[in-house]
Amino acid sequence: MIDHWPLMGLRLTIGDVELRLPDDEELAQLADVAERGVHAPGDRPFLNGWTDGTPAEVARRFVQAHWGHRAAWTPQRWELELAVFHEGRPVGCQGMWASDFATVREVTTGSWLGIEHHGRGIGTRMRGAVLALAFAGLGSEFAMSMSFEDNHAPLGVSRKFGYRPDGITRDALHGEVMVSRRLRLSRQDWETGNPEPVIISGLDPCRELFGLTGD
């Protein structure tokens, strides 16, 4: 499969955390993690509401979304959804997406982590891994992140990496206005933040898929 879809060979390793595309069995295990919950009952940390519904519905939507990202991928518009493994066990997903990346050189990131794995520093390491991919691996100039004002965990992770305020967005969710903080991290601020080393392997065959032909 790597011959036809080189992204299957992409690996990011940071400490005891590894990020890569899951095979179908690992995708099923990730769906089980999602089914058990990724946030406390009553919380709404995601704008798209993908965690609404029964546990079985949440798991099924996650699997469908993962398949959809791969099917819709083009070098001009892509969304990379990497499974996160902690000590060999799937615990969540770290996403990174962009449009016209070869020109704009800007990515946006988002993630989720099984609720039983919160508070162990995994969220910081998985963000650090994709930031290394974006800046060191792909030559991005900026990385963006957005979080609701009361979603303190991802906002705290962003502060650790040196993101700066970049305004707000106002969106509707279940009939209510939700305010998100937009945050922006520059290549310079990432470099001066002394990021934890990340091992990136299998990237070269993937560059064309990211729109970087000839880089």
TrEMBL record:
Q: Which keywords accompany this UniProt record? A: Transferase
InterPro entries attached here?
Acyl_CoA_acyltransferase, GNAT_dom
In terms of Pfam families, this protein maps to: Acetyltransf_3
Ranges for domain N-acetyltransferase come to 17-184
Does Nucleotide-binding count among this protein's keywords? Answer: no
Which SUPFAM superfamilies does the record associate with it? Acyl-CoA N-acyltransferases (Nat)
Q: Does the keyword Transferase apply?
A: yes
Q: Which GO terms describe its molecular function?
A: acyltransferase activity, transferring groups other than amino-acyl groups
User: By what name is this protein known?
Assistant: GCN5-related N-acetyltransferase
- Organism of origin is Stackebrandtia nassauensis (strain DSM 44728 / CIP 108903 / NRRL B-16338 / NBRC 102104 / LLR-40K-21)
Taxonomic classification? Bacteria, Bacillati, Actinomycetota, Actinomycetes, Glycomycetales
